[in-house]
Amino acid sequence: MAEFIHDDLRGSTFEQVDLSGARFHHCQLNGVGLSGVRMRGVELRDVEITGELAGVTVNGVEIAPLVEAELNRRHPERHQMRPTDPDGFREAWATLERLWAGTVARAQRLPPERLHESVEGEWSFIETLRHLVFVTDAWIRRGIQGQPAPWHPLSLPWDGMSDTPGVPRDRAARPSLETVLALRADRVAGVRVLLASLTPEQLEAHTVAVDAPGWPPPQSFPARECLEVLLNEEWEHRLFAERDLAVLEASPIDHLPGR
């Protein structure tokens, strides 16, 4: 089978091509993701879509508001993840700490080696926690607090991020859950302290640009934006973790999807 990795196929034409079983990962189709795409006369059956929806119309019905309403119904705490003032951010963080405590307790009931298992090519539970350490290091320690290179060696950026000097990317590391939880507890406590004294003026202020390579880029950001990124990452990755823990709990170790 053909493989196209880091290839520029813009302007290519695919006609009467069988793409059954093909896998697209971090690809762009007419913009970012599927932005600006029109599909007419298609058949969608047994399709799973995970991502951000905006302006998505199916048979004349915009579905994004329907999906949002259903997600809010399923997860009553979800509305807290769009705070408008410092108290709202503090409440959202307290909710995330409580929810993550339950998720970690669920993970701790599995054999330790299962927490390094990937479900359908997604991050393992340990890798998910490592990524959230990276998110806090990037958007709080660097983005808000101005530390030029705050990353711990176990911090894990997203797979599509380009290699950047000074930013770790050790996918082969296999730290214990206890090691990663201790690291994460330090980051969570740091956010809690930051939010405890957050004022409306600080929330709306722009951060000081960091003059060093890394992520986020060396530029100024509204503090609100940095905190919103953190809340979104924490919320979404916990749902991913819960989804994959359910598979781990139900699957024998030698029969995991993607193993």
Automatic annotation (TrEMBL):
Pfam families to which the protein is assigned, alphabetical: DinB_2, Pentapeptide
Entries under SUPFAM superfamilies matching the protein: DinB/YfiT-like putative metalloenzymes, Pentapeptide repeat-like
Superkingdom classification of source: Bacteria
Domain DinB-like intervals: 96-239
InterPro entries listed in its UniProt record: 5peptide_repeat, DinB-like, DinB/YfiT-like
Protein name from the UniProt record: DinB-like domain-containing protein
